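Supplementary Data S3. Sequence and C-alpha coordinates for construct A.
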Amino acid sequence: MTGKRAGTLLEMMHPIEHFTLARAWEGLTDDEFFWEPFTTTWSIRRQDQCRTPNPFGAGEWVADFAIPEPAPVPMTTIAWLYWHIGSMPGRLCDIDFLGGTRTMASGWTSPYLTHHPIFTSAAEAVTALRDGWQRLREAIERADDDQLEVTTAGYTYAAGVLPLVVGPPGPAHTATHFIAATLTEVGHHGTQIGALRDVYAWRRSAAADTAT
Protein backbone atom coordinates (compact mmCIF):
# COMPACT_ATOMS: atom_id res chain seq x y z
CA MET A 1 0.00 0.00 0.00
CA THR A 2 1.34 3.43 -0.99
CA GLY A 3 2.13 5.64 2.00
CA LYS A 4 0.71 9.10 2.54
CA ARG A 5 3.92 10.93 1.57
CA ALA A 6 4.45 8.85 -1.56
CA GLY A 7 0.81 9.22 -2.53
CA THR A 8 1.04 13.00 -2.38
CA LEU A 9 4.19 13.06 -4.51
CA LEU A 10 2.65 10.72 -7.07
CA GLU A 11 -0.38 12.99 -7.25
CA MET A 12 2.00 15.85 -8.06
CA MET A 13 3.69 13.83 -10.78
CA HIS A 14 0.51 13.01 -12.66
CA PRO A 15 -0.53 16.54 -13.76
CA ILE A 16 3.10 17.51 -14.44
CA GLU A 17 3.43 14.58 -16.82
CA HIS A 18 -0.04 14.86 -18.35
CA PHE A 19 -0.21 18.63 -18.88
CA THR A 20 3.44 19.69 -19.07
CA LEU A 21 5.89 16.94 -19.97
CA ALA A 22 3.65 15.48 -22.65
CA ARG A 23 3.88 18.85 -24.42
CA ALA A 24 7.64 18.89 -23.86
CA TRP A 25 8.43 15.49 -25.33
CA GLU A 26 5.72 14.23 -27.71
CA GLY A 27 6.85 14.58 -31.32
CA LEU A 28 9.80 16.84 -30.51
CA THR A 29 11.99 17.38 -33.58
CA ASP A 30 15.66 18.28 -33.87
CA ASP A 31 14.70 21.56 -35.57
CA GLU A 32 12.67 22.58 -32.50
CA PHE A 33 15.36 21.25 -30.20
CA PHE A 34 18.09 23.52 -31.57
CA TRP A 35 15.96 26.50 -32.62
CA GLU A 36 17.30 29.86 -31.35
CA PRO A 37 14.64 32.58 -31.08
CA PHE A 38 17.28 35.35 -30.59
CA THR A 39 20.93 35.83 -31.50
CA THR A 40 21.76 35.98 -27.79
CA THR A 41 20.06 32.67 -26.98
CA TRP A 42 21.99 30.17 -24.87
CA SER A 43 22.17 26.67 -26.29
CA ILE A 44 24.40 23.62 -26.41
CA ARG A 45 27.34 23.86 -28.79
CA ARG A 46 30.56 22.22 -29.75
CA GLN A 47 33.49 23.56 -27.74
CA ASP A 48 34.95 25.44 -30.73
CA GLN A 49 31.61 27.17 -31.40
CA CYS A 50 30.84 28.22 -27.83
CA ARG A 51 30.52 31.97 -27.30
CA THR A 52 29.96 32.24 -23.54
CA PRO A 53 32.77 32.55 -20.96
CA ASN A 54 31.75 29.87 -18.42
CA PRO A 55 30.09 26.95 -20.25
CA PHE A 56 29.28 23.64 -18.58
CA GLY A 57 30.44 20.33 -20.02
CA ALA A 58 33.42 18.03 -20.04
CA GLY A 59 33.40 16.76 -23.63
CA GLU A 60 32.99 17.90 -27.21
CA TRP A 61 29.65 19.57 -26.43
CA VAL A 62 29.05 22.25 -23.81
CA ALA A 63 26.11 24.26 -22.47
CA ASP A 64 26.31 28.05 -22.68
CA PHE A 65 26.64 29.92 -19.40
CA ALA A 66 28.16 33.07 -17.94
CA ILE A 67 28.98 34.02 -14.35
CA PRO A 68 27.73 36.47 -13.29
CA GLU A 69 24.59 35.93 -15.32
CA PRO A 70 23.75 38.76 -17.74
CA ALA A 71 20.75 40.96 -17.04
CA PRO A 72 18.35 40.06 -18.41
CA VAL A 73 19.28 36.39 -18.44
CA PRO A 74 19.28 35.15 -22.05
CA MET A 75 16.53 32.88 -23.29
CA THR A 76 17.58 29.28 -23.76
CA THR A 77 16.93 26.70 -26.45
CA ILE A 78 14.99 23.53 -25.80
CA ALA A 79 18.31 21.70 -26.09
CA TRP A 80 19.73 23.78 -23.22
CA LEU A 81 16.65 23.14 -21.08
CA TYR A 82 16.90 19.39 -21.66
CA TRP A 83 20.54 19.49 -20.56
CA HIS A 84 19.37 21.31 -17.43
CA ILE A 85 16.57 18.91 -16.40
CA GLY A 86 16.75 15.85 -18.66
CA SER A 87 18.76 13.64 -16.32
CA MET A 88 17.59 15.23 -13.06
CA PRO A 89 14.73 12.78 -12.23
CA GLY A 90 16.94 9.75 -12.86
CA ARG A 91 19.77 11.22 -10.80
CA LEU A 92 17.42 11.78 -7.88
CA CYS A 93 16.93 7.99 -7.81
CA ASP A 94 20.67 7.70 -7.09
CA ILE A 95 20.30 9.61 -3.80
CA ASP A 96 20.56 7.59 -0.59
CA PHE A 97 17.04 8.31 0.68
CA LEU A 98 15.67 6.56 -2.44
CA GLY A 99 18.05 3.62 -2.12
CA GLY A 100 21.05 4.98 -4.01
CA THR A 101 24.61 5.69 -2.91
CA ARG A 102 24.83 9.46 -3.56
CA THR A 103 23.95 12.28 -1.18
CA MET A 104 22.06 15.49 -1.86
CA ALA A 105 24.96 17.47 -0.37
CA SER A 106 27.26 16.11 -3.11
CA GLY A 107 25.45 18.16 -5.76
CA TRP A 108 24.78 15.04 -7.83
CA THR A 109 21.40 16.36 -9.01
CA SER A 110 22.71 19.82 -10.00
CA PRO A 111 23.89 20.30 -13.61
CA TYR A 112 26.08 23.14 -12.33
CA LEU A 113 28.02 20.95 -9.89
CA THR A 114 28.32 17.60 -11.67
CA HIS A 115 28.61 16.85 -15.37
CA HIS A 116 25.11 16.04 -16.56
CA PRO A 117 24.93 14.53 -20.05
CA ILE A 118 24.52 16.97 -22.93
CA PHE A 119 22.00 15.57 -25.38
CA THR A 120 22.70 16.22 -29.05
CA SER A 121 19.36 15.08 -30.47
CA ALA A 122 15.73 15.44 -29.50
CA ALA A 123 15.26 11.67 -29.41
CA GLU A 124 18.17 11.16 -27.02
CA ALA A 125 16.94 13.92 -24.71
CA VAL A 126 13.32 12.75 -24.65
CA THR A 127 14.35 9.17 -23.92
CA ALA A 128 16.49 10.26 -20.98
CA LEU A 129 13.76 12.39 -19.44
CA ARG A 130 11.03 9.78 -19.97
CA ASP A 131 13.15 6.98 -18.54
CA GLY A 132 14.30 9.04 -15.56
CA TRP A 133 10.74 10.17 -14.84
CA GLN A 134 9.57 6.53 -14.86
CA ARG A 135 12.45 5.47 -12.59
CA LEU A 136 11.54 8.22 -10.15
CA ARG A 137 7.88 7.24 -10.12
CA GLU A 138 8.81 3.64 -9.36
CA ALA A 139 11.23 4.69 -6.60
CA ILE A 140 8.55 6.83 -4.95
CA GLU A 141 6.02 4.00 -5.20
CA ARG A 142 8.43 1.74 -3.28
CA ALA A 143 9.17 4.30 -0.56
CA ASP A 144 7.36 4.26 2.78
CA ASP A 145 6.64 7.28 4.97
CA ASP A 146 9.61 6.67 7.26
CA GLN A 147 11.95 6.66 4.28
CA LEU A 148 10.48 9.89 2.88
CA GLU A 149 10.71 11.64 6.26
CA VAL A 150 14.48 11.08 6.54
CA THR A 151 16.25 14.41 7.01
CA THR A 152 19.37 15.19 5.01
CA ALA A 153 21.49 18.20 4.06
CA GLY A 154 21.26 19.84 0.66
CA TYR A 155 24.09 21.19 -1.46
CA THR A 156 25.56 24.69 -1.62
CA TYR A 157 27.94 26.45 -4.00
CA ALA A 158 31.41 27.38 -2.80
CA ALA A 159 31.71 31.15 -2.68
CA GLY A 160 33.89 32.85 -5.30
CA VAL A 161 35.09 29.66 -7.03
CA LEU A 162 34.97 29.11 -10.80
CA PRO A 163 34.02 26.75 -12.21
CA LEU A 164 31.30 26.20 -9.64
CA VAL A 165 32.08 23.55 -7.04
CA VAL A 166 30.25 22.13 -4.04
CA GLY A 167 30.40 24.14 -0.86
CA PRO A 168 29.66 23.06 2.72
CA PRO A 169 26.46 21.07 3.33
CA GLY A 170 23.34 23.21 3.14
CA PRO A 171 20.24 23.30 5.33
CA ALA A 172 18.69 19.94 6.21
CA HIS A 173 15.26 19.03 4.89
CA THR A 174 13.20 15.87 4.54
CA ALA A 175 13.46 13.63 1.51
CA THR A 176 9.94 14.75 0.59
CA HIS A 177 11.17 18.35 0.34
CA PHE A 178 13.94 17.48 -2.11
CA ILE A 179 11.71 15.28 -4.25
CA ALA A 180 9.00 17.95 -4.42
CA ALA A 181 11.65 20.54 -5.34
CA THR A 182 12.83 18.35 -8.23
CA LEU A 183 9.28 17.88 -9.47
CA THR A 184 8.81 21.66 -9.38
CA GLU A 185 12.08 22.23 -11.26
CA VAL A 186 11.19 19.74 -13.98
CA GLY A 187 7.65 21.09 -14.20
CA HIS A 188 8.52 24.75 -14.59
CA HIS A 189 11.30 24.15 -17.13
CA GLY A 190 9.00 21.73 -18.93
CA THR A 191 6.55 24.61 -19.22
CA GLN A 192 9.29 26.71 -20.83
CA ILE A 193 9.87 23.95 -23.37
CA GLY A 194 6.18 23.86 -24.19
CA ALA A 195 6.10 27.64 -24.64
CA LEU A 196 9.14 27.56 -26.94
CA ARG A 197 7.46 24.87 -29.02
CA ASP A 198 4.37 27.07 -29.33
CA VAL A 199 6.42 30.07 -30.48
CA TYR A 200 8.34 27.90 -32.94
CA ALA A 201 5.10 26.56 -34.41
CA TRP A 202 3.48 29.98 -34.70
CA ARG A 203 6.55 31.52 -36.34
CA ARG A 204 6.65 28.74 -38.92
CA SER A 205 2.93 29.19 -39.53
CA ALA A 206 3.33 32.96 -39.95
CA ALA A 207 6.27 32.48 -42.31
CA ALA A 208 4.24 30.04 -44.42
CA ASP A 209 1.34 32.50 -44.61
CA THR A 210 3.68 35.27 -45.71
CA ALA A 211 5.21 33.07 -48.39
CA THR A 212 1.80 32.36 -49.91
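Construct B, processed identically:
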Amino acid sequence: MKISVIGYAGSGKSSFATKLAIHYNIETTYLDKLHFEPGWVERDKETRNTMIKTILENDKWIIDGSYTSAVIERFEQADQTFFFNFNRLKCLYGALVRRIKYRNKPRRSMTEGNKEKFDFKFMMWILFDGRTKKKREFYRNLVKLYSDKVIVFKNRRQVNCYLKSLGINDFKVKS
Protein backbone atom coordinates (compact mmCIF):
# COMPACT_ATOMS: atom_id res chain seq x y z
CA MET A 1 0.00 0.00 0.00
CA LYS A 2 1.24 3.48 -0.87
CA ILE A 3 -0.31 6.45 0.93
CA SER A 4 0.33 10.16 0.54
CA VAL A 5 -0.86 12.65 3.18
CA ILE A 6 -0.83 16.31 2.16
CA GLY A 7 -2.40 19.53 3.34
CA TYR A 8 -1.85 22.74 5.21
CA ALA A 9 0.51 23.26 8.14
CA GLY A 10 -1.11 22.62 11.50
CA SER A 11 -3.95 20.51 10.13
CA GLY A 12 -2.83 17.24 11.72
CA LYS A 13 -1.28 15.45 8.76
CA SER A 14 1.57 13.92 10.75
CA SER A 15 -0.67 12.63 13.55
CA PHE A 16 -2.96 11.05 10.95
CA ALA A 17 -0.02 9.51 9.07
CA THR A 18 1.28 8.06 12.33
CA LYS A 19 -2.11 6.48 13.06
CA LEU A 20 -2.19 4.94 9.57
CA ALA A 21 1.39 3.70 9.96
CA ILE A 22 0.49 1.87 13.16
CA HIS A 23 -2.72 0.49 11.66
CA TYR A 24 -1.12 -0.77 8.42
CA ASN A 25 2.32 -1.50 9.89
CA ILE A 26 4.04 0.72 7.32
CA GLU A 27 6.86 3.09 8.13
CA THR A 28 6.03 6.76 7.68
CA THR A 29 8.34 9.19 5.94
CA TYR A 30 7.88 12.71 7.27
CA LEU A 31 9.03 15.16 4.62
CA ASP A 32 9.88 17.71 7.32
CA LYS A 33 12.64 15.31 8.41
CA LEU A 34 14.00 15.23 4.88
CA HIS A 35 13.66 18.99 4.43
CA PHE A 36 15.38 20.11 7.64
CA GLU A 37 18.70 19.03 9.09
CA PRO A 38 19.48 19.66 12.77
CA GLY A 39 19.34 23.32 13.73
CA TRP A 40 16.50 23.96 11.27
CA VAL A 41 18.99 24.07 8.38
CA GLU A 42 17.31 23.36 5.05
CA ARG A 43 18.74 20.34 3.30
CA ASP A 44 20.02 20.70 -0.25
CA LYS A 45 17.05 20.30 -2.64
CA GLU A 46 18.81 17.80 -4.88
CA THR A 47 19.72 15.60 -1.90
CA ARG A 48 16.17 15.80 -0.56
CA ASN A 49 14.66 14.90 -3.94
CA THR A 50 17.00 11.91 -4.24
CA MET A 51 15.89 10.74 -0.80
CA ILE A 52 12.21 11.05 -1.82
CA LYS A 53 12.76 9.16 -5.07
CA THR A 54 14.45 6.34 -3.13
CA ILE A 55 11.42 6.06 -0.84
CA LEU A 56 9.07 6.01 -3.83
CA GLU A 57 10.88 2.91 -5.10
CA ASN A 58 9.62 0.91 -2.10
CA ASP A 59 6.64 -1.44 -2.38
CA LYS A 60 4.80 0.31 0.44
CA TRP A 61 5.08 3.71 2.04
CA ILE A 62 3.26 6.48 3.82
CA ILE A 63 4.60 9.91 2.97
CA ASP A 64 3.50 12.85 5.09
CA GLY A 65 4.07 16.34 3.79
CA SER A 66 3.08 18.87 1.21
CA TYR A 67 6.41 19.77 -0.29
CA THR A 68 5.93 20.02 -4.03
CA SER A 69 9.14 18.08 -4.74
CA ALA A 70 8.11 14.83 -6.40
CA VAL A 71 4.44 15.48 -5.58
CA ILE A 72 3.32 14.35 -9.03
CA GLU A 73 5.20 11.07 -8.65
CA ARG A 74 3.67 10.61 -5.19
CA PHE A 75 0.15 11.20 -6.51
CA GLU A 76 0.70 8.90 -9.49
CA GLN A 77 2.09 6.06 -7.36
CA ALA A 78 -0.14 6.44 -4.32
CA ASP A 79 -2.98 4.00 -3.88
CA GLN A 80 -4.65 6.59 -1.64
CA THR A 81 -4.02 10.28 -1.02
CA PHE A 82 -5.48 12.24 1.87
CA PHE A 83 -5.72 16.01 1.53
CA PHE A 84 -6.16 18.00 4.76
CA ASN A 85 -7.98 21.08 3.47
CA PHE A 86 -8.76 22.70 6.82
CA ASN A 87 -9.48 26.39 7.13
CA ARG A 88 -6.57 28.58 8.16
CA LEU A 89 -7.86 29.40 11.66
CA LYS A 90 -8.25 25.69 12.51
CA CYS A 91 -4.70 25.14 11.27
CA LEU A 92 -3.42 28.05 13.34
CA TYR A 93 -5.15 26.61 16.40
CA GLY A 94 -3.67 23.17 15.67
CA ALA A 95 -0.18 24.62 15.37
CA LEU A 96 -0.57 26.52 18.65
CA VAL A 97 -1.76 23.41 20.49
CA ARG A 98 1.14 21.47 19.00
CA ARG A 99 3.57 24.18 20.14
CA ILE A 100 2.28 23.91 23.71
CA LYS A 101 2.40 20.11 23.67
CA TYR A 102 5.94 19.89 22.29
CA ARG A 103 7.45 22.97 23.90
CA ASN A 104 11.26 22.64 23.81
CA LYS A 105 10.97 19.09 22.45
CA PRO A 106 11.16 17.67 18.96
CA ARG A 107 8.10 15.85 17.68
CA ARG A 108 8.37 12.51 15.92
CA SER A 109 7.83 14.10 12.51
CA MET A 110 10.82 16.45 12.85
CA THR A 111 14.55 15.97 12.65
CA GLU A 112 16.09 15.08 16.00
CA GLY A 113 17.34 18.23 17.71
CA ASN A 114 14.81 20.54 16.04
CA LYS A 115 12.57 21.65 18.86
CA GLU A 116 9.01 22.69 18.16
CA LYS A 117 8.76 26.39 17.45
CA PHE A 118 6.09 28.89 16.61
CA ASP A 119 7.05 32.34 15.43
CA PHE A 120 5.57 35.18 13.42
CA LYS A 121 6.98 33.82 10.15
CA PHE A 122 5.35 30.43 10.73
CA MET A 123 2.06 32.06 11.72
CA MET A 124 2.12 34.03 8.45
CA TRP A 125 2.87 30.80 6.55
CA ILE A 126 -0.18 29.13 8.09
CA LEU A 127 -2.49 32.07 7.51
CA PHE A 128 -1.31 33.43 4.17
CA ASP A 129 2.01 32.42 2.60
CA GLY A 130 1.24 28.70 2.49
CA ARG A 131 -2.16 29.39 0.92
CA THR A 132 -1.34 31.49 -2.08
CA LYS A 133 -3.75 31.45 -4.98
CA LYS A 134 -1.17 29.48 -6.96
CA LYS A 135 -0.84 26.82 -4.23
CA ARG A 136 -4.63 26.50 -3.77
CA GLU A 137 -5.04 26.09 -7.53
CA PHE A 138 -2.23 23.52 -7.57
CA TYR A 139 -4.03 21.44 -4.92
CA ARG A 140 -7.38 21.84 -6.68
CA ASN A 141 -5.90 20.55 -9.94
CA LEU A 142 -4.21 17.57 -8.28
CA VAL A 143 -7.38 16.60 -6.43
CA LYS A 144 -9.36 16.85 -9.66
CA LEU A 145 -6.80 14.92 -11.71
CA TYR A 146 -6.59 12.06 -9.18
CA SER A 147 -10.16 12.26 -7.87
CA ASP A 148 -10.52 8.46 -7.93
CA LYS A 149 -7.93 8.07 -5.16
CA VAL A 150 -8.08 11.30 -3.15
CA ILE A 151 -10.04 11.83 0.03
CA VAL A 152 -10.39 15.45 1.09
CA PHE A 153 -10.85 16.23 4.78
CA LYS A 154 -12.24 19.66 5.67
CA ASN A 155 -12.31 19.17 9.45
CA ARG A 156 -11.26 16.86 12.29
CA ARG A 157 -14.72 15.31 12.54
CA GLN A 158 -14.31 13.91 9.01
CA VAL A 159 -10.83 12.63 9.90
CA ASN A 160 -12.15 10.93 13.05
CA CYS A 161 -15.01 9.32 11.13
CA TYR A 162 -12.55 7.92 8.62
CA LEU A 163 -10.26 6.60 11.36
CA LYS A 164 -13.23 5.00 13.13
CA SER A 165 -14.16 3.27 9.86
CA LEU A 166 -10.72 1.62 10.05
CA GLY A 167 -11.23 0.68 13.70
CA ILE A 168 -8.95 3.44 14.96
CA ASN A 169 -10.63 5.11 17.90
CA ASP A 170 -9.47 8.71 17.91
CA PHE A 171 -7.38 11.30 16.20
CA LYS A 172 -5.00 11.83 19.10
CA VAL A 173 -1.59 10.19 18.91
CA LYS A 174 0.32 9.37 22.06
CA SER A 175 3.83 10.84 22.10
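Strands lie at 2-7, 28-30, 36-37, 41-42, 61-64, 80-84, 150-153. The longest strand covers residues 2-7.
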